[in-house]
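User: What would this chain look like folded?
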Amino acid sequence: MSAMRSILKETRERKGISLEQAERDTNIRKPYLIGLEEGDYDQLPGRVYTIGFLRSYGKYLGLDPEPLIQEFKHNNTTELAETVEIESHSKETEKTVEAEKRSVSRVQMIGYGLAVLTLVGLFYISTHLSSSPDMNGISTERSASVTGEQNNQINESQQDEPAAIVQNANDEEVPVEEASVVQEEGVNITIHVRQDRSWVAVTQDGVPQYQGILYAGETMTFKGKEKVLLHVGNAGAVEVIYNGENLGPMGRLNDVEKKEFVRS
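Assistant: Here's the prediction, encoded as structure tokens.
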């Protein structure tokens, strides 16, 4: 125990003050008073509190507390430097860990972004090859397909009917030539899916008319004034009839084909 610190205990005992009374008078807990008197500063809560306790206790005993405080600071300079160094190192470590966390977070975000882009790309491709999205609210009723089939059946039945027969002046039966069919103007396109299914997009005179999937046996007819553009997937499954002429499949199975039909 140093001479300066022993003064605290000697002065208290000389004045006949017990530790209990000093605790009540100074509001400093008894273990802290013992730590001050014996120089056992590990018992105190910290450097700032220790300096405050030294000042209060010294004044209570009628002593000048400044020499006590200076001795405490001098003896604890090394400890303070070590504490500051430890705190500084701790802060640097925290900064390094935080920077590493931010770096890992950025890498993860980039990875997530690439994954999302990949999924979007796959969804876009699958949508155009195997789905039937609506196109700007344009819907084509299946009744158009039924009407086209009915018209074809009527035309075929008319072709099967025998030519009308009249008698000439000599009472000879002479077949009357069928009136020539007047071909409608414009571009008439009928598409018929012969097998499996096919994604189909149709633009009529520059205006989108249909986009979706047609299945085997389904037929649709489109009429444009100047042109009709067909864009199909699985082209070998799609049969095209252009102005009454059957052109056969648009291409090979599983191939994607695009063709424009213009007014002749």
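The chain has a mean pLDDT of 77. If you want, I can go into more detail on any region.
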